[in-house]
Every structure is written in structure tokens, then in C-alpha cells.
Specification:
Blueprint: H1 19-31, H2 36-46, H3 51-66, H4 75-89, E1 97-98, E2 103-104, E3 113-116, E4 119-129, H5 139-144, E5 156-158, E6 167-171, H6 178-184, H7 190-206, E7 219-221, E8 227-229, H8 232-235, H9 264-280, H10 289-296, H11 304-307
Parallel strand pairs: 1-5
Antiparallel strand pairs: 2-3, 3-4, 4-6, 5-6, 7-8
Amino acid sequence: MAAHPGHETPSTGLDTPNESEVFATLCHLVSRIDAEDRMQEVIKKAQDLERGDLQLLVDCLSMSIDKNAAPLKCRSYVWRSLIKIASTAKVFAQNHTLDSACLVREAGSPPSIYNISGKASLRVKVLRKIENSQPHYNESLVSWSHIYHSNVIPVYSVFLDNGINPSLVSPDFTYGNICNYIQEHPEASRILLVCDIASGLSYLHEHNLVHGGLYPDCVLVSDEGRALIANVDVTSNSRDSDSLSIRYSAPELVGEDDGVQPTQASDMWSFACLCYEVHFESTRNCVPWLTLYLRLYPERSPTSKLLRSSEF
């Protein structure tokens, strides 16, 4: 795999399928998953496969996504096939899995931080452990652990301490979130950082994923000064309904209906708010967010969620 900016790609330490053997049939396989009925056929047939064959299928589908081997018209169907099969079978692609033998915890390091053996400068942080008690893995978590883009922080699965439940780990960056970074590095190109965020968000939306929590704490900066999007759902076992800062929330998400879910459109609202803050290095009092909300929706009264928020 090509390295993401800001870190080396960790060696998985596992025997992945021989690329010269797999790639010959890979394009033919994925080119046939070009419609909804073909996708459903692949998912259904996967239910009858043995564990080893399931692993090979997931590896092939994942490789086709990472290497752009799938024709453009097939990519959405290939991606959905991968996530559905992997979550149902509780299987992670080996090219997105680390060997626990490669992880070393140094004395004095926090318990969630590991070094990659032989790569002193490369560290990973344990984000969460996936519970194995459910019949299927959460599709959102499986999706994030199979994403491969230079502006999205990679998430790998790993079985720590000989456990049967996989943990999700991600590279640990020296720099903090994007707003802290630009305060400490005023010479940084803010346009480049914004373009990085846009590129990562576009990739997520192309794969029918909604971030749902795009604000500064979810955008980290690599050692090379490039912005990478992290995911809030991966880092916690339960999603807080107010986890997306009110100041970055689209109006429909802070209305009276608590059942409204984030969408790609609300992601774009959050992205615009984040761009404003990155570009102008604003503080929370620079933009009258509540006033803006009431001007856009004069017929609405401030909701209890807005009024109790410390953002205003």
C-alpha cells in the first residue's frame, strides 16, 4: 500500500494473498459487480463460503478498492459488498490488519500507545475494542477500518493480548487538531489544509459515508503538515447525541426534532464552518451562530439544546 501523508504505512505482519496471483482475477471479479442484483448475488453466495474463502474474498474486494482496480461504475457496489460481507462474517481485510506481534509497548508510554516494531518513529493508538457478542460487526466501524485515502486517518484492526475481540488502532500524530496547529504554525498554508479536508470528505461521500461530526478535534495534522479526517464513532463505544459541537451543526440538527440524523448535506455545513474558523482563526465569539440560526429560521424558537450549549 502507498503511504498516507504524515506516516509510514505499517507492515501488517500477515501473509496477505500473493498479489501477482490475485490481481489477475481481481479485475474480472469486480467488473461483474456492476449492478444492485449482482451485488446482492455476491453477498448471498458469500454466506455459503468457508472461513478461509471468506477471508480471501474480503481481501480481494478490499484490494480492488485500495488499488482502484474496480471500474468506476462498479466501485459503489464493490464497496457495499465488501462492508456487508466483512461485517456479517466478522472478517477484516488482511491489508487493513496489523499483527499484534509487531506492536511493542515501551516503558513509560500510556497503555493505549504502541510502537511498531523496527519503526521507532511510528506509533499507533488504540481507539477502542470491538465487542464480539453481537451477531454482526457494526458496519460503520468496518467501513472506517477499510477506508484508504491520503486525507483520512487510517484505522487498522489488531488482536491484542491474544484476545478474540479485535481492537481498532490508528497512527498517533505529534501535532494536535487543525486549529491548534495553525495557532502554533501561523506560516502554514490554510488553503492547502482546507483542500485536504475537502478531499477526504469527498472520498467519504463517494462511498456513501456520512461523517456526522466534522469539527476541529476530528481533523488532525500530520508531521508533514497535511490535514487528515478522523472519525468520532471509532473513538467511542457510544455516540453522544451532542458529540458534534453545536457551533458546527447544521440548523436541522439542533432543531426540536432530536431524531434528525446527520447527512452529507449537514457535513457540508460543518465543513463550511470549519473552513471559516481555519481561514480566519476565529474564536467562538467571532460569529453570532445563534443569531445566524434565528435569521435563517425566524419561525423557530431557540431549542433547549441551543440554549444550554456553552457555545453561545
